[in-house]
Amino acid sequence: MPLFYEKKQLVAPGDLLAEGDYLSGDSTYKENEKIYACRLGLVDYDGKRVHVVALKAFYIPVPGDVVIGKVIEATPGGWVIDIKAPHLARLRASDVVERGFKPETTDLPSIFDVGDLIITKVIAYDRTRDPQLTVREPGLGKIMRGQLVEVTPTKIPRVIGRQGSMVGMIKKETGCQLTIGQNGLILVSGRTVENERIAIKAIRKIEQESHTSGLTDKVTEMIKKEREAIDSK
Amino acid sequence: MVDKKGIRLDGRKVDELRPVKMEVGVLPNADGSSYLEQGRNKILVGVYGPKEAHPRHIAQQDRAVIQCRYHMAPFSVDERKSPAPSRRDVELSKVIREALEPAVFLEYYPRTSIQVYIEILQADGGTRCAGITAAALALADAGIPMRDLVVACAAGKASGKIALDLMDTEDKVGEADVPVAYMPNLDAITLLQMDGNLSTEEFETAVNMAVEGCKKLYEVQKEALKAKYVIEEEKEE
């Protein structure tokens, strides 16, 4: 049962990763007891499971994911939302309007208009149908203020960190509120533009250096330096 | 075309490739992109998707579709080429699409389309092969799952000798041309064409020669794909 690469090594599509009794994880595929990579990324072994952390990928919706989307159309029955997935998502009007929703009388664009950004949750997606969204939960709904940062969806786990250690740190150090969409969009809203700028810079640093270890400490240090630079002014 | 010492017009040996240069991520607005230079060929590829298919009726219920556009810029050849898609452009688009299809996991993303735009900025023979190599690179750059990278290379016959990677004059004056697209890790051929006349033996030599050429190109392709990230790693240390 040989392994052909070391942990965290860079592989390209088609590279043979392992042979024998292993399980194929993310961004890999298995054929004739051999596991190959199917994306450019870093190999990782987790017991018997072989997977690749892709350096770039697109977002595939999973029910339960909180995502940030843009309204691109208001139809009589609801909205069409771009969540950066291969398919456009739908948000039903009956999900938003409390009760007595009538397509003839309710003015949908007054709730969400084309171009609005909203925080929503995926409730259903099974490849044969378009993703269904909901906003019926605390914390979901229209975005009123803040700045958006976009990262590759595969880097989101790194931005969150183990048990939320990374986001928790950024929130604490910058005093910003972070809403992370699993589709790679992150909403940063803080008290001042300066705070938001530091938080965005931290996220960008994580994105670029996601494959290095001890990143939380590096980012903490960076934020502290930035803060000092502002305070001394 | 080939002199007594076996040296060709541009100073290459019969089994030698033209100098190649590949780069990925050159177009910030595309999901994936690549730039390739092979001899005097210059090719730019942009990949978009997977995303909702337009027009809707081309979407397939069980898999993604690849929409491929091979286009030669009007200034890519000596005599100005009409920018409108010619019969040749349409044919090459289809051939390139079919060469890429076996490598992509189309069944993972039903009802979507992946758009591949291949723009030939400068042509000097063997653009369909170079286009496939560059397109595979751009697909991988876009993060589209693939079984293997696809590499393509041609071999042909010029003044009675079998030679690798024919350039424009060799192709036009020569007797035959055999383009081959190949998946190196799976050892599978995805495109095989022949233009001209070759004996069975000559054909076999040409195919084997082209496959060897593909293997060399594959190394360059892999390096180009990884280069974008390796440099970043070095900077940090």
Q: What would you note in describing this structure?
A:
The complex is a heterodimer of chains A (233) and B (237). With 233 residues, chain A is α+β, with helices and mostly antiparallel strands. Helix content of chain A is 22%, strand content 31%. Chain A is built from five helices and 16 strands. Chain A has a five-stranded mixed beta barrel. Chain A is flat. Chain A starts with 9 loop residues before the first strand and ends with a helix. The model of chain A has no long low-confidence stretch (mean pLDDT 90). The radius of gyration of chain B is 18 Å and the shape is globular. In chain B, helix 1 packs across helix 2 (127-141) and helix 2 runs parallel beside helix 4 (200-236). Chain B has 237 residues and is an alpha+beta fold. The model of chain B has no long low-confidence stretch (mean pLDDT 93). Chain B has four helices and ten strands; from the N terminus they run E-E-E-E-H-E-H-E-E-H-E-E-E-H. The N and C termini of chain B lie far apart (51 Å). The longest helix of chain B is centred in the last third of the chain and has 37 residues, at 200-236. Chain B has a five-stranded mixed beta sheet with strand order 1-2-3-5-4. In chain B, strands 6, 7, 8, 9 and 10 form a five-stranded antiparallel beta sheet that branches. Chain B has helices at 87-100, 127-141, 168-173, 200-236, and strands at residues 20-24, 32-38, 41-52, 65-72, 112-122, 151-158, 161-164, 176-183, 188-192, 195-196. The chains are: A alpha+beta (233), B alpha+beta (237). Chain A binds chain B through residues 10, 12-16, 27, 29, 36, 38-40, 54-58, 86-88, 127-128, 152, 208-209, 211-212, and chain B through 31-32, 49-52, 61, 103, 105, 109-112, 140-149, 183-186, 222, 225-226, 229-230, 232-233, 236.
